[in-house]
Amino acid sequence: MSSQPNLPSPSRLLVLISGNGSNLQALIDACNTPALPHTSIIRVISNRKDAYGLQRAQKADIPTTYHNLVKYKKRHPATDAGVQAAREEYDRDLARLIVDDEPPDLVVCAGFMHVLSVHFCTLLAEAGVDIINLHPALPGRYNGAGAIDRAYEDFQKGEISGTGVMIHYVIAEVDMGEPIVVRDVEMRAGEAKGELEARMHEVEHGLIVEGTRVALENIKERRKREGGGETG
Ligand code: GRF
Predict the structure, then answer these.
(1) In the annotation, is 135 catalytic?
(2) Would you say the CB of residue 134 lies under 6 angstroms from ligand 1?
(3) Cα–Cα distance measured from residue 159 to residue 153, given in angstroms and rounded to the nearest whole number
(4) Could you tell me if 113 and 19 are in contact, meaning their C-beta atoms sit under 8 angstroms apart?
(5) What number of other Cβ atoms are within 10 A of residue 117's Cβ?
(6) Which residues lie below 8 Å from residue 48, measured CB to CB, with a gap of 6+?
(7) How many CB atoms lie within 10 A of CB 146?
(8) Which residue numbers in the chain have pLDDT < 70?
(9) How far, in Å, CA of 229 to CA of 4, rounded?
């Protein structure tokens, strides 16, 4: 007989990935530690079949799904309108995948290299599921792909003196949602790009855990205000 009061269920994360999954690994390692207490990852979804992050999830006994955009593109003409229609169907089905059975408390984009449409964001918002994203740049700087490369090039040209990493809420405008946590990263003259990337990834691995914890705390506060249930 437990003397403990009924503990609320753990906070439930769903993680979206596209590649190596080192940020996913940081989340896996942090779950149920003081860094990310009472939290579990209920599923990992990748838009790339060969994403090593899928293997990381499987090793951690986390259910995985490969959600493939190509099959949607094959249903539509290879025109701008056709690609747009395919992406909308893809995003709608991705949202259904996430919310239909056991919705998570939070979706974390951890190196997810797919631009989520307003349709996706709306469906998740209607289901009350927040979405956060890791972006290796400071708010409003280097939105989109290749942020580290572009910052490195601008530093070589003397146009910037530093960069950073942020975790932010996801809205339809790429990388422009409200920041949750931001960390400056110094840039060093003569440093090779690979060394900067390594330092950036180190910062990412800590920030994605901190940003996820803060986002979950924000959800708990919001639910208390709304008189809703606990997340864990
Ligand atoms: C990170 O630098 C992320 O910001 C970028 O791709 C990398 C993802 O790395 N979008 P991983 O897949 O988490 O190792």
Answers:
(1) yes
(2) yes
(3) 9
(4) yes
(5) 18
(6) 17, 18, 19, 66, 113
(7) 12
(8) 1-8, 228-232
(9) 18
Q: How far apart are CA 213 and CA 34, in angstroms?
A: 10
Amino acid identity of 13? L
47 Cβ closer than 6 Å to some ligand 1 atom: no
Closest-CA residue, ligand 1 atom 1, reads 111
Of all atoms in ligand 1, which is nearest to the CA of residue 24?
13
Per-residue pLDDT tens digits for 114-156:
999 998 999 999 999 999 999 999 999 999 999 999 999 999 9
Domain ranges of the chain: 11-224
Give residue 197 CA to ligand 1 midpoint distance, Å: 10
Q: Does domain 11-224 have CATH number 3.40.50.170?
A: yes
Q: Which of 16, 17, 23 to mutate to test the pocket of ligand 1 (most atoms within 8 A of CB)?
A: 23
Query: Is residue 111 within 6 Å of ligand 1 at its C-beta?
Result: yes
Tokens standing for 137?
């740049």
Q: Answer whether 218 contacts ligand 1 (Cβ < 6 A).
A: no
CB atoms near residue 179 (< 10 Å): 15
